[in-house]
Amino acid sequence: MPHDWPYPFWIAHRGAGRRAPENTLAAFREGAAHGFRMFECDVKLSADDVPFLLHDSDLERTTSGLGLAGERPWAALAQLDAGSWHGALHAGEPLPTLQAIARFVIANGLAVNLEIKPSPGVETRTGDFVARAALELWTGLQPPPLLSSFEVPALEAAAAAAPALPRALLLEELWAGWFETARRLSCRAVVTHHPLMDAALVQTLHAAGMRALVYTVNAPADLAAMRAAGVDGVITDEVERYAADARAAR
Prior knowledge:
Number of helices: 9
Order of helices and strands: EHEEHHEHEHEHEHEHEH
Radius of gyration: 17 Å
CATH superfamily: Phosphatidylinositol (PI) phosphodiesterase
Helix content: 25-40%
Strand order of the largest sheet: 1-2-4-5-6-7-8-9
Strand content: 15-25%
Structural class: alpha/beta
Number of strands: 9
Oligomer: single chain
Shape: globular
CATH class: Alpha Beta
CATH topology: TIM Barrel
CATH architecture: Alpha-Beta Barrel
């Protein structure tokens, strides 16, 4: 297994998406304040192709908007309140662009896993635009963003647009052909839902030169199982619970 893996073991999910509004700069600041040096977030495109952070296809759950996010231009999305749903303390928190997140991450010497989260029907376009934007924003900087996706067409487009950026295949289940797909796309890692991962799968990935990461590990018993399996990184919501571990692992 190659040793050139520049990413920390601990990765904060959607920033610190339980203590602050997920996928916002507030969440990133909260995670960093708890000692986390790497963050996972979801990136999609506005109707006018601006990469920005949001998990869902629609706007209702985490913003003041209605309808499909991908059908709105960035000028409209930028006016939305992406914080009040979480609590009054974060009222008025905006949706961040990928550029804004990159500025924060780079200025603070942090790492990021950009999950390409396309709106339905624009998988290839999203993979292409997000990868190109990431390549430009992080040109010459280390560590580079790790690009991941559940959507194979998005990851294929990212590989074509920015072959030098590291990629990871995300898996909610071990579907037929996933391993061959990860190898075909020269993935540096595979990120599975944690119940799918065990020592045998870790060994298979390591033997193929890939790292084994898991999401979303919150309970101590699950963390212990993943450590015993030998994983290379865990994505967690519990930034407060694991703050001391994240600081110690720097």
